[in-house]
Specification:
The chain has 2 helices and 8 strands, in the order E-E-E-E-H-E-E-E-H-E. The protein is mainly β and 150 residues long. The protein has one domain. The protein has a 5-stranded parallel β-sheet, with no helix packed on it. The chain has a 3-stranded parallel β-sheet with strand order 2-4-6, with no helix packed on it. Strand 7, helix 2 and strand 8 form a beta-alpha-beta unit. The radius of gyration is 14 Å and the shape is globular.
Length: 150
């Protein structure tokens, strides 16, 4: 898996991966973005996301700035309960742009972020406000880097 650069293309049919509950990505050293633009709606039932040892990964969710205008209401990943990111030295963003109006993570109960030294912050302010179920947060990030300004 060291040479894998793309897991899915941005033209994934909205219902083709809608029953997927857990994704684990490990050791994909050439993968730069996990979810490219246009794939958000395909993972509506995703509950567990684990990413480990992907040295080139810079962004987990690549969301287009105007994507909210194309999507009716809040869409996707609302069932995510567990997020685990480990040993991703080049990870800069979980979301490059503010996912407000596109993604909501109100069911996230556990988040673990370890070995992600380039990560600028864990959550956009709009996402942090909706984390009403968050019970466990493990992070090596500095406290001022948990949320973005907002």
């Amino acid at each position: 898996m060291n040479s894998l650069t793309t897991i899915w293309h941005s033209q994934v049919a909205a219902d083709s991966l809608s029953e997927l509950i857990e994704i684990t990505v490990e050791g994909c050293d050439k993968l730069v973005t996990l979810f490219p633009p246009g794939t958000v709606r395909s993972f509506q039932n995703l509950e567990v996301l684990k990413i480990r040892r992907c040295s080139a990964l810079k962004v987990v969710y690549e969301i287009e700035e105007n994507a909210g205008s194309d999507l009716p209401g809040l869409v996707a990943i609302t069932k995510l309960k567990e997020l685990s990111l480990a040993d991703l030295a080049n990870l800069q963003h979980i979301w490059r742009t503010d996912p407000k109006g596109i993604l909501s993570f109100q069911n996230l109960s556990s988040a673990s972020v370890m070995g992600c030294s380039s990560l600028r912050y864990l959550f956009h302010a709009s996402v942090a406000q909706a984390l009403v179920q968050l019970v466990e947060l493990k992070s090596q990030a500095n406290p001022h880097r948990v949320t973005s300004k907002g």
